[in-house]
Design a protein that fits this description.
Structural class: alpha/beta
Radius of gyration: 25 Å
Order of helices and strands: HEEEEHEHEHEEEEHEHEHEEEHH
Strand order of the largest sheet: 5-1-6-15-7
Oligomer: single chain
Number of helices: 9
Shape: globular
Length: about 260
């Protein structure tokens, strides 16, 4: 083989090696899978829109982002009505729903729930000058504001002779209480606590012992039990490495 041919051969091998290295880089830069997440972003401190940045924030938002990172997925949040979350899962418009959703037998017939990630319960909020409502039994015959599609709405409808007013979001229900249109709001305890601390102030107070003990779960399509299992594994890892506790303390000021 002549020196000229040898030189051409070496150059060719060099160029080919560059091409292979380039291919390797392209493979490494392959985009992560996308996890489409539905949430009703008006349920502070679990999910709400920051007034300054307009970003979706909250305990649920931080948690699902941490879960997505654990799964190697890019999380994309879609804001939608709470009562539209399960239909969106059934239509495959979203992959999962995280929105302080209580695990119930009825919902479990339609979706695949992750293991519980938060324990809650229902309480009442009344105006500070209301001393007639102290227990759930005192709601009989009263006007009650609830959020549509929630367990709070389900329980309120069991109250004898009560007038139930359903709203699209928790803030709307609280506004109706502040305006004097209803006697009480029935909603999840941590949401009621957050409202009183951040928005209600001297205008409202929480009364009564929690009516129920409820577990929140992350919902996936009923046909995608594998995804729910993957989320379970991610939650386990986040609890193991301390990230879950870090997020919990950030939003609730105490350890789980």
């Amino acid at each position: 083989m002549s020196k000229k041919i040898m030189s051409l051969f070496i150059v060719g091998v060099f160029i080919l090696s560059l091409g292979l290295v380039g291919c390797g880089k392209q493979e490494a830069a392959k985009p992560a899978k996308v996890l489409k997440v539905g949430s009703e972003a008006a349920f502070a401190p679990f999910e709400f829109q920051d007034e300054g940045t307009k970003e979706y924030v909250g305990f649920d938002i931080d948690l699902i982002k941490a879960i997505g990172k654990q799964m190697g997925a890019e999380v994309q949040i879609q804001n939608m009505g709470f009562d539209g979350l399960i239909p969106a899962l059934e239509a495959n418009n979203i992959d999962v729903a995280i929105s302080a959703m209580t695990i119930t037998e009825e919902r479990a017939k339609k979706v695949s729930f992750s293991k519980p990630y938060y324990k809650s319960g229902l309480t009442m909020v009344v105006k500070t000058d209301n001393n007639s409502i102290k227990t759930f039994n005192d709601l009989e015959g009263k006007k009650i504001a609830v959020q549509i599609g929630t367990t709070g709405a389900d329980e309120a409808k069991k109250v004898k002779n009560a007038q139930i007013r359903e709203f699209n979001s928790a803030p709307e229900a609280f506004l109706e209480l502040k305006a004097g249109g209803v006697d009480a709001v029935v909603n999840d305890k941590p949401v009621n606590e957050y409202y009183i601390a951040k928005a209600g102030g001297k205008d409202a107070k929480m009364v009564g012992e929690p009516l129920t003990a409820e577990d929140y779960g992350i919902a996936a399509s009923g046909k995608n039990k594998e995804l729910a299992t993957q989320i379970d594994k991610a939650i386990d890892e986040l609890k193991k490495n301390g990230e879950y506790e870090k997020i919990y303390v950030k939003w609730f000021g105490k350890k789980p």
